[in-house]
Structure formats: structure tokens, C-alpha cells
Amino acid sequence: MPTNLPNLLTLSRIAAIPVMVALAAMRTPLGDMAACVVFGLAGITDYFDGKIARDRQQFSDFGRMLDPIADKLLVAAALMALAGMDRLSPAALFPAIVIMLREILVSGLREYLAGLRIGLPVTRLAKWKTGVQMGALGTLLAGDSGAPVVGLGFLPVSLIGEVMLWTAAGLTLITGWDYLVASMRHAGGQPSKTALRP
Questions:
Q1: Which of 75, 70, 76, 72 shows the shortest CA–CA distance to 14?
Q2: Shortest CA distance to 131 belongs to which of 83, 168, 99, 93?
Q3: What angle separates helix 124-146 from helix 29-56, to the nearest 10 degrees?
């Protein structure tokens, strides 16, 4: 197993998941804010592992395989923790379901397209989607209980997080549709003209 710095950062993202869930399960203001911080730090590693790999030319098949898995595990764990601990309103379950289903869909399409040796370029919209999604989940993990720890108790933090989650779900549908359309074109033997958005 390669142990260069980008891969270690990716592995740290996976290692952060049980810590984040355990902190959220404490159901205390400090635990909620700590869960938010751990999630945020884990999310930041997604940027740095790619940047360092490009800057140092430290690419590996292991890293290419593990990076999207780590991302999806982190997002799925946060969504399930929030839903399982009743930290989402009934309405917010819908965007959470959309995000989870899209992650499963894209994983399957990625595997199919990889067999055809088709690359998946990251677009600006995909980066916005990821940023909004990570911001929403971090905000929801902090919640109304964690916000007072950092002096933000006057804000409707959970409501802000849910609005961001709905926004992320909308972007998720758009980028997921791009994957689906492009995959169907390749399945039909037609070259894709659609920019794929991971």
C-alpha cells in the first residue's frame, strides 16, 4: 500500500469518520462543535491530497481508487449520523436521500466508464457542489446546540444547514444527470460531448 503524503491524507479522511460519529453521538454542545471541526478538517484533506499529488507528481493507482471512496464514506457517514440522531427535519431527509442515491449512482457509472478508459474531468460546477455539500454537512453537525460554543447562538444554524443541503441536492441532480447522459451515450457506442461532473 503506497504511503506517500497524498495517500496518507486520504486515509486520514477515513480515519476521521468514527471520531466524527462518536463526537456527534455525545449529543453535547461541545461534542457537536467538535464533530463539525473534525468533519471540516477531513474535508479539507480532499483538497490538499489532490494538490500535493499534482505538485509532487505523486500519483498512484491506490490513490485514484481510494480518494473517491474516502469522499463518499465521509459524506455518507455524516448524513446517516445526522438522520439517525434526529438532527434533520423531516423535509431535510429528501435532499439527504437525493445525495445518497446520487453517490451510489455515480459510483456505478464511474466503474462502468473506467472499464471504457474514459476520464472524468472535474468541472467548476462539481467543485461548487462539493463545497456547498461539505459546508451544509459541517453546519448541520454543529447545529443549534454547537453554535453557542463559538458565539453564534443567535444564528438559526440548523436552518442555514438545511437550506445549504437543499442547494447541494439541486447541484447533485445536475451533476448526476451529466454522468447518466454521458454513460448512456457510451453504452450506445456514441462519443460523449457532455463534460462529466464528478
A1: 70
A2: 168
A3: 160
| 5-187 CATH | 1.20.120.1760
The amino acid sitting at 62 is F
**Environment class of residue 113 by beta-carbon count within 10 Å: exposed (0-12), middle (13-18) or buried (19+)?**
buried
* Alpha-carbon gap, residue 147 to 141, rounded angstroms: 10
d(CA 91, CA 108): 27
**If phi over 0 gives left and psi between -120 and 50 gives alpha, with beta otherwise, what is residue 189?**
left
Start-to-end CA distance of the chain, whole Å, equals 25
- The pLDDT tens digits for 2-57 are 678 888 898 999 999 999 999 999 999 999 999 999 999 999 998 888 788 888 88
Residue 21's pLDDT is 97
- Residues 136 and 168: beta-carbon distance below 8 Å: yes
| Domain spans of the chain, in order of start | 5-187
Q: How many residues are listed for the chain in this entry?
A: 198
Note the pTM of the prediction, 2 decimals.
0.84
Q: Where are the beta strands (DSSP E) in the chain?
A: none
Joined together, the cell numbers standing for residue 81 give 449520523
Q: Which residue has the cell 446546540?
A: 145
Place of cell 447522459: 181
Residue 125: predicted pLDDT: 84
DSSP-derived letter for residue 59 is -
